[in-house]
Amino acid sequence: MKFEDLLLEIGGFGRFQILILFFLCLPRINLPMHFLLHNFLAATPSHHCAIPHQEAFVNLTMEEVLLISIPREPDGTFRSCEMFSEPQFHLLLNSSLQPENNSIIQHCQHGWVYDHSQFTSTISTEWDLVCEQRGLNQATATFFFIGVTMGAVVFGYLSDRFGRKAMLLLSLVCSVIFGMLSAASISYSMLAITRTLTGVALSGVSLIVLPLGMEWVDIQHRTFSGILTSIFWSIGNMLLAMIAYLVREWHWLLVAVTGPCLLSIVCLWWVPESARWLIANGKVKQAHRHVLRCARMNGRKDFAEDMPLTTYAQRIVLQWEYKKPGGSYSYISLFRTPVLRKISLCSGAVWFGVAFSYYGMSMNLTGFGLNMYLSQFVFGVIEIPAKIIMYVVVNRAGRRQSQAWALILTGLCIGANVIIPKPFTFLRSVVAIMGKGFSEAAFTTVFLYTSELYPTVLRQNGMGYTSFVARLGGALAPLVFLLDEVWRSLPEVTYCGVAVCCGSVAFLLPETLNVRLPEGIEDIE
């Protein structure tokens, strides 16, 4: 008997599964609050060089002091990173006569003055991560995603070795500890280290939540479960916009987005371990206990009463079904056999493209003509209809076509905004929102698709590997913004090209629509 057949007897989508999904959705809300926190944590307000006080400035207004101390850009705004070596008093008579001699222009010598109208403080204003230090500001997001990348490898292996639930609890506890330490950071180095460790911890949450829920759900409701779980990511997106709007000080913002992890820890005690994992690892007694609990909660009392009489026979069948002829499995197992190797290489490329383009769009909130809080909220709102539409599409067109075209269209939308002139703000915003919808559709599909591609004995290793590759994409995405110093549109062109190429690779993957979840490697090969 396959576990899928057993699910049909005990209820593959009843009250038991709904409660599991609900409790697993709570930590899912918390993920985007940290993954996209960089938009607000490291926001850089408008700034200019600090001007030391001089006796000659006594009768001048602040605007006049800036006029004679800081050169202007062609559009008339003051430069952010440069100042005159000596006050240019002649500009008081004619401000349009900007000096052409660059020798009198120098970098800021006395720090910066920031506009605090939008943010009380950010890490940019705390440690002057602007101008020459701008790279360190963007690197904060990269450090976080490097942590997520390392965590994907660690928790992917550990959750297959020691169980889904135990590792999910560990990752939540560590997320709270390192999140609070980040809020208490007294130096940039301390923040970089604690944000990296927070990324490691949250990677376990990201990696384990979906498979743990999916392994309790029958084939017919797998897609619905995946979409439902991912909708809570979008809710977290919208909550981040509201929390960031209310909390403008970066220390307290970190506390506000980390606190909800405590609620997830409390709720997790009710969530059972995956029966598939328990059986696959020979822990049939525990699996039997959870199966009986599922049957009772789903109203299958007859099955629950008869189960003890047939327990022994049932154990033999299930143990034989999940017997692992090759012993323990590792990440190397993903590349040992031909079909599994092809799946691993192609799915890795798709995950990289999905994450690279998603975070490229998500971390460019000010590039589409909308207020950054409104952009964050709208980007979260547009994800929900995108997910609902994908629920229909993946069940009609299949996983492969949905995955490929969602990612390709994401790239085309990003590319379109390179061509559309800046003054067409409304059109650029519409195209950006459409691109964000396609991007989220691609992310939603790839989680569901990947969990169906790998067998139970390697599912968490597979998710760990693909998550590792995705986080490489997430780590590189914020650094690509620095390419605008080479060519203003180069970051968008890069995101566009990667999304289209990686989307095309998805056509090489097998279709999994209405196919049983594979249990062993032999089911794949």
TrEMBL record:
Membrane topology qualifier: Multi-pass membrane protein
**Where is it located?**
Apical cell membrane; Basolateral cell membrane
Catalysed reactions listed for this entry: urate(out) = urate(in); 3',5'-cyclic AMP(in) = 3',5'-cyclic AMP(out); guanosine(in) = guanosine(out); 3',5'-cyclic GMP(in) = 3',5'-cyclic GMP(out)
Respond yes or no to whether keyword Phosphoprotein is given for this record: no
GO cellular component assignments = apical plasma membrane; basolateral plasma membrane
Q: Which GO terms describe its molecular function?
A: organic anion transmembrane transporter activity; prostaglandin transmembrane transporter activity
**Keyword Ion transport belongs to the record:** yes
Q: Mind telling me which CDD domains this protein's record contains?
A: MFS_SLC22A7_OAT2 (cd17447)
Where do the Major facilitator superfamily (MFS) profile domain residues begin and end? 87-513
GO BP annotations, alphabetical order: monoatomic ion transport
Q: Per the record, a Pfam family?
A: Sugar_tr
Q: Which residues cross the membrane?
A: 139-159, 166-186, 192-212, 224-246, 252-271, 343-361, 373-392, 404-420
Arranged from A to Z, the UniProt key words for this protein are:
Cell membrane, Ion transport, Membrane, Transmembrane, Transmembrane helix, Transport
Database matches in PROSITE patterns: MFS
Of which family is this protein a member? Belongs to the major facilitator (TC 2.A.1) superfamily. Organic cation transporter (TC 2.A.1.19) family.
- What is the protein name for this chain? Solute carrier family 22 member 7
Organism per entry = Fregetta grallaria (White-bellied storm-petrel)
